[in-house]
Specification:
Length: 262
Amino acid sequence: MSAVPALKIDNIGKHFGGVKVIDQLSFSVPLGARTALIGPNGAGKTTVFNLVSGVYPLDYGSIALNGADVTHVSQGERIKFGLARSFQNIRLIAHLTALENILLGQQIRAGGLRGLLYPLNVFRRNKWRDEARAALCDVGLEAYGDDMVGDLPYGVQKRIDLVRAELARPKLLLLDEPAAGLNPTETEELQAHLEGLTERGITLVVVEHDMQFINVLCEHVVVLNFGSKIAEGTPEEVRNHGAVREAYLGREEDEEAFSHAS
Ligand SMILES: Nc1ncnc2c1ncn2[C@@H]1O[C@H](COP(=O)(O)OP(=O)(O)OP(=O)(O)O)[C@@H](O)[C@H]1O
Ligand SMILES: [Mg+2]
């Protein structure tokens, strides 16, 4: 394994108002691995993604992508360092078709004004459109290409959102609860799909409440509680960690997901 991690979070902090949401947090994501970021509701998982992707500035600390310090790099520029993400609440544009939403993802890769116009241009066929259709085809969604996203079932929308993020050709992909709301078949398909991304050399960080999903998918788990890391290791190691069990105790939903995985 390479000595340079895909993502290095070094002693970062963030507060909102008077509340410390992320507090002296450090962890690294090994290159080529599938890492899970878990923790009870409100632990700060989505905030970590927002800090890594540059949605919010840090109060202190530093973030490096593949050895490059991006602490002061803007959100848009971080994409050029190979970063892409999905959102906990799907951010597709409901009144555009599946294909158009994906083309917007490609726009990021194209860059610049020319790039902005290219994927969305009026020509019926261009390489972007062909590539977007092929990507939909790869995941068995070709039938939905021309459907308005807002009319599609939730599980399909989530898959389209993933295709959109992937077409930015990321080296590091952050997925915020990709399995939430999916049925068991869709969840299994997602697992297989994410394993395929690793084979293509993409490093994954997955926030997920479903511990069974994590057990199957991830070799490395980081556990947050109140914005700090309370454990790190293999799924089995963190499952048996006293502080982790304690953090999940008394939180019914989380506790249930956690015990199912044991
Ligand atoms: N923009 C913001 N302004 C104020 N408070 C915020 C903001 N974003 C997050 N928070 C607070 O930070 C804390 C952590 O939120 P975050 O969304 O990161 O948790 P999470 O671990 O993703 O939780 P969940 O599992 O419910 O998605 C919460 O108390 C939340 O209310
Ligand atoms: Mg969240």
